[in-house]
Amino acid sequence: MKEHGPGNVGYIAVWAALVVLTAATVAVSYVHLGMMNVVVALLIASVKASLVALFFMHLRRESRLVWGFALTPVFFLVLIIAGTLSDTLFR
Amino acid sequence: MRETMWSGERPLNGNASPRGYLEEKGFWAWAYTLDHKRIGVMYLYTTLFFFLVGGVFALLIRIKLMFPGQHIFTNQTYNVMFTMHGALMIFLFIIPAIPSGLGNFFIPLQIGARDVAFPRLNLMSYWVFVAGIVVILFSLVRPMDTGWTFYTPYSARTSADVTVLSFGIFLIGMSSILTGLNFLVTIHKLRAPGMTWHRMPLFIWSMYATSIIQVLATPVVGITFLLLAMERVLGVGFFDPAKGGDPILFQHFFWFYSHPVVYVMILPAMGIISEVIPVFSRKPIFGYKAIAYSSVAIALFGFFVWGHHMFVTGMSGTAAIIFSLLTYSVAIPTAIKVFNWLATMYRGSITFESPMLYALTFIFLFVVGGLTGMYLGALGADIHVHDTYFIVAHFHYTMVGGTVMGLLAGLHFWFPKMTGRMLGEKMARPAWLLMFIGFNVTFFTQFILGFEGMPRRYAEYPAQYQALNIVSTVGSWVLATGVLIMFANFVRGLFRGAPAPPNPWKALSLDWQTGSPPPTENFREIPTVTDWPYGYAGRQT
Amino acid sequence: MTGHEPHMDPATAREAATLGIWTFLATEVLLFGGLFTAYVIFRIQYPRMFYDDHLKLDRVLGAVNTIVLIGSSLTVALGISAIRKGKVRLLRMYLSFTILLAATFLGIKYLEYTEKFSHGLSPGTDIFFSLYFMLTGLHGIHVLAGMVVLGAVLYLAGKGKYSESYHTPVEISGLYWHFVDLVWIYLFPLLYLVG
């Protein structure tokens, strides 16, 4: 039988966290932090993404193989960005 | 004494009809089939058809190149011809032929499964492929003239119907992705009991590595063609300098896929070689783990080197140096395989049936192609020969001398299994010889032409290059003759070949332990595997 | 169709389906990845354009859409929770909510797009708006596709195809839907908040 996930209460708690984080990221965007705006926004987005992946998408309970399938594309995304930047940044 | 790789003695095909999976006839029995073997056969017919079509374009190109200054057809037509030759050969033949053709047929058989993980997705993959072909055909109203690489800015502005073509290629890519996805899950989840990763045939390892590339690289070419279409239709300007865009960005996206895709082309062929050599040397494969892991290493390293197609574009020197350095890394796992195949043959009992002839040809020609790739990885050398016939010769040695020879080795090896009939060796060997001679005459001369400065994709050239061009064209006729005789032999085998026993080559992998042709359900009962498939009686290494 | 008996036991079939959908999601990461790459390249090249243009996007509407999509992820998760206990009617209710929220998302995007067009802003205007329309457009197509898939699941649920012991298509559709939410979680700040 399938293991039981976070349960309805858990899902609602995650949802609430996501809403709060959304409000936070919008609020921070009105504050001028220069370069840090990008960093903070991406950080908050990554926390939200992790919550969705770990709890809504059940990654927390999945095998290492599934983790491998989930994380590998991120590595290649970094690769294509880095490789292209190695050209455009240093022309 | 021959060892079996599974527990038990009885043959695995049971009382299946002699026609096996071919029993049920009729259009819908094929069009609606969920049988991976039938889907594989349909892919083979389709891809081999485009091999012939692409070949016709090649012959026409070579005829034009014999007569510079003569009006055989217009320069615009010439541009269309080399574009069609490249695009059809690459997208409709060489990428799908082994994976979707032989891979579909033999992956479940070699791992002891009844089918792939998602049979309906498999069928859908084939029809999406056909849909892509139809869309590409529609684009021929204004035929492509950009070269198969579709570089911007020309591809964004040409009156050729690149927009429709882009959607066609997108569909072809989707088909490739779905096949790769299916194979990944199949190999992870459907191996017979007892078949650990290190008891899998090396063809499976190579198909696993190939599927990783298909899944991760193809989406990038998908978005690339989508963006090209949007550039033409919506005025999106990512690749347009006038709008602040960068045409080199197109090349980064394009080659991020198109370099790894050459490993999609070669890895399955290498997998076939790893199957054929032990059988026809009657010896266990040397360095199983080295070959297995090097397949995955090639797949991985192949993603790091795409910039080496762009050395002369004006990309940054920093990037050029990094990509050049990384390019050398790919040679290492590749060379490891070659050494292992040679070591397998050393002191083996070698026989030269047609599968082995093609396998040996693969090794020789691919090494030439691969070594010339090393010249190209060096910045200085590449700047001299980029966009010349040296490049053309390099990739024909690897793609034809490599992948096509591997495919032909596989087709000759597995013909009895797929069709239930034997191929005649009497016609197979002259065909092979003509192809070998024709291929080398055609393409070795092109190394020389390129080094001497003849550019590629030019319909006209200075008189000093004509002699070698004539030689190359004559070579293409010899090659074509060999190809035709080989196809004639296939047809003859299909209709008049002697009935094939289940295991004519006395091979050990599971695909040979069931009937020729296999029953629809592949095996009467799924075997429990107890050993690797390379336990030939030759001296253990 | 030629007969093809199921060749996997239920547990293996579920694991295979999970691996399959994660593989598909991997391809989607790379598909959107090309656009994200373009974003990074051009953001570095044109910081001024990105700053000026992003102010023309409606931050509030974008935030509302984010809440809408996050809500739809919740409803789909609750739906799966329901079918795990065999509660088909509850599943159908949550699926309906999810589709409704998805439609709301698209409705708001439609409002945004028409407002942009009326101001003469289109995909061809400049690099920033090319990125805006391409990214949100591709994402919108995925939302639409998700609605179709969830609609099919809703329909089949009504036909009694899913139960406590078998509801794999619901799970994998849910995973796809969460991914669509995931992409937006990054799109929203990158386009609306950090010019």
Question: Can you lay out the helices and strands and say which pair or pack?
Answer:
The complex is a heterotrimer of chains A (91), B (541) and C (195).
Chain A: H1 7-29, H2 35-56, H3 64-88
Helix pairs in contact in A: 1-2
Chain B: H1 27-31, H2 36-66, H3 75-94, H4 97-111, H5 119-139, H6 154-157, H7 162-189, H8 202-234, H9 247-281, H10 288-301, H11 317-345, H12 354-377, H13 379-385, H14 389-419, H15 425-451, H16 466-496
Helix pairs in contact in B: 2-3, 2-4, 2-5, 2-16, 4-7, 4-8, 4-14, 5-7, 7-8, 8-9, 8-10, 9-10, 9-11, 9-12, 9-14, 10-11, 11-12, 12-14, 12-15, 14-15, 15-16
Chain C: H1 10-45, H2 47-54, H3 59-84, H4 88-118, H5 127-158, H6 168-193
Helix pairs in contact in C: 1-5, 1-6, 3-4, 3-6, 4-5, 5-6
Task: Tag the structure with descriptive keywords.
heterotrimer; A: 91 residues; mainly alpha; 2 domains; 3 helices; 77% helix; B: 541 residues; Cytochrome C Oxidase, Chain A; 16 helices; globular
Written overview of the protein:
The complex is a heterotrimer of chains A (91), B (541) and C (195). Chain A is an all-alpha fold and 91 residues long. The longest helix of chain A has 25 residues, at 64-88. In chain A, helix 1 runs antiparallel to helix 2 (35-56). The relative contact order of chain A is 0.09. Chain A has helices spanning 7-29, 35-56, 64-88. Chain A is flat, with a radius of gyration of 17 Å. Chain A has 2 domains: 1-57, no CATH class; 63-91. Chain B is mainly alpha-helical. Chain B has a domain at 23-124 and 200-210 and 262-513: Up-down Bundle (Cytochrome C Oxidase, Chain A), CATH 1.20.210.10. Chain B is built from 16 helices and no strands. Chain C has 195 residues and is mostly helical. In chain C, 82% of the residues lie in helices and 0% in strands. The relative contact order of chain C is 0.16. Chain C has helices spanning 10-45, 47-54, 59-84, 88-118, 127-158, 168-193. The mean pLDDT of chain C is 95. Chain C has a single domain, classed as Up-down Bundle (Four Helix Bundle (Hemerythrin (Met), subunit A)), CATH 1.20.120. Chain C has 6 helices and no strands. Classes of the chains: A mainly alpha (91), B mainly alpha (541), C mainly alpha (195).
Offer a quick outline of the entry.
The complex is a heterotrimer of chains A (91), B (541) and C (195). Chain A has 91 residues and is mainly α.
